[in-house]
């Protein structure tokens, strides 16, 4: 292939614009896609035939606040039941999600930061510094106030572990 140089193809002004737009990095490597919830959910859920969204720890990973979990969790949409996912690293859960609880692009997506936060607060998962730090980072990154999260949990009609979620939220804020 021979020697390849970006300077052979782009002017200095074009290289500067590409760098400012985030399309190349310090080593002049081109990015083929943006690393965000869309690309992360597509990576995990792209082979599924039915609409599904990443939930709980997988949603935290999609929102870029924790490392990738070994097994991803997702939920189906529109009452579709999936017995066996196409991705062996995927565990399907059945949750009741409204349109305001999800961000969807095509057939895959992720729960919103607010829904992800409330799901993690009420989950059976063990309490750890990593989870607490990641929840604080999620709240900071998406500008979720303590009052908003508390109000959201209080307004959820019939959810299991509501008291646990509220207690964890108080502990998180201290």
Describe the structure.
It is a single chain. By secondary structure, this protein is an alpha/beta fold. It folds into 2 domains: 1-32, no CATH class; 37-173, no CATH class. The protein has helices at residues 6-9, 12-20, 37-45, 56-62, 113-122, 129-141, 146-155, 162-173, and strands at residues 52-54, 72-76, 90-93, 102-105, 108-111. The protein has a 5-stranded mixed β-sheet. α5 (113-122) crosses α8 (162-173). The chain is globular. The relative contact order is 0.12.
Secondary-structure element series: HHHEHEEEEHHHH
What shape does the CA trace take?
globular
Biggest pleated sheet: 5 strands, mixed
Radius of gyration: 20 Å
Briefly characterize the structure:
The protein has 174 residues and is α/β, with parallel strands linked by helices. It has helices at residues 6-9, 12-20, 37-45, 56-62, 113-122, 129-141, 146-155, 162-173, and strands at 52-54, 72-76, 90-93, 102-105, 108-111.
């Amino acid at each position: 292939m021979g020697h390849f140089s970006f300077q052979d193809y782009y002017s200095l002004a074009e290289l500067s614009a590409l760098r400012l737009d985030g399309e190349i990095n310090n080593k002049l490597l081109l990015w083929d896609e943006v690393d965000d919830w869309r690309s992360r959910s597509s990576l995990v859920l792209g082979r599924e035939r039915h609409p599904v969204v990443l939930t709980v720890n997988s949603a935290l990973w999609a929102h870029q606040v924790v490392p990738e979990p070994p097994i991803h969790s997702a939920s189906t949409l529109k009452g579709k039941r999936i017995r066996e996912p196409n991705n062996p690293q995927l565990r399907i859960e059945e949750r009741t999600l409204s349109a305001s609880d999800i961000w969807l692009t095509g057939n895959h997506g992720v729960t919103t930061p607010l829904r992800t936060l409330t799901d993690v607060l009420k989950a059976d998962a063990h309490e750890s510094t990593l989870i607490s730090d990641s929840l604080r980072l999620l709240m900071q990154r998406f500008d979720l106030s303590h009052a908003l999260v508390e109000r959201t949990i209080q307004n959820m009609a019939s959810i299991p572990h509501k008291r646990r979620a509220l207690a964890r939220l108080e502990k998180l804020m201290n």
